[in-house]
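[recover] target loaded
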């Protein structure tokens, strides 16, 4: 009892009839819709997490901290709780970069959740760049401004989405910046009094002969 039967791994699934091109397109459309739903859910959750954390929602409920609140209310770990915050901050930074680099902020929804759905960014991608949001935002803004000034391509939604996704991809694959050099500690030269004292032997007490 409880033994694994190797023959179970070799049982072939019943043969399925081959798909037609129309059926394959329909199945692909369903997959795409499901992926968009997942991205929408991640974005909405992250935006609500950001708002809850900013409002310090745990205090009125008597929880001592954000991680204690997430553990008690949702049963998620400290790492998961702060990972959601990372996602929310990355979304906000990206949406701010788009608003700074284009005029689309006048017509687009300013909520980061809607922006994330438009951009099609996954939670994994956002977590990967959460520690380098400044670099992502700067890259997005510069590329959008360059496109706008060139006049070669309209900054419509597909173009902005492509710029954002490519910038996130570039930052993810770029090597991390080298660590900053530690500050050089300069030695304070000794004062003339201290130098003279250190080079002068203290007087030796002499005992008088009795």
């Amino acid at each position: 009892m409880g033994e694994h039967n190797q023959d179970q791994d070799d049982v072939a699934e019943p043969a399925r009839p081959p798909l037609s091109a129309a059926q394959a397109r329909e199945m692909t459309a369903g997959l795409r819709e499901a992926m968009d739903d997942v991205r929408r859910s991640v974005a909405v959750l992250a935006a609500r997490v950001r708002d809850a954390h900013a409002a310090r929602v745990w205090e009125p409920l008597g929880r001592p901290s954000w991680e204690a609140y997430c553990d008690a209310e949702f049963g998620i770990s400290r790492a998961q709780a702060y990972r959601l915050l990372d996602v929310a901050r990355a979304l906000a930074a990206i949406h701010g970069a788009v608003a700074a680099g284009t005029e689309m902020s006048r017509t687009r929804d300013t909520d980061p959740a809607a922006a994330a759905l438009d951009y099609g960014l996954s939670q994994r991608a956002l977590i990967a760049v959460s520690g380098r949001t400044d670099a992502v935002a700067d890259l997005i803004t510069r590329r959008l401004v360059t496109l706008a000034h060139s006049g070669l391509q309209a900054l419509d939604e597909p173009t902005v989405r492509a710029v954002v996704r490519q910038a996130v991809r570039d930052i993810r694959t770029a090597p991390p910046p080298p660590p900053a050099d530690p500050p050089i500690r300069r030695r304070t030269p000794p004062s003339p009094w201290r130098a003279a004292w250190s080079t002068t032997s203290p007087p030796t007490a002499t005992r008088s002969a009795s």
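[recover] notes: The two ends are 105 Å apart (CA to CA).
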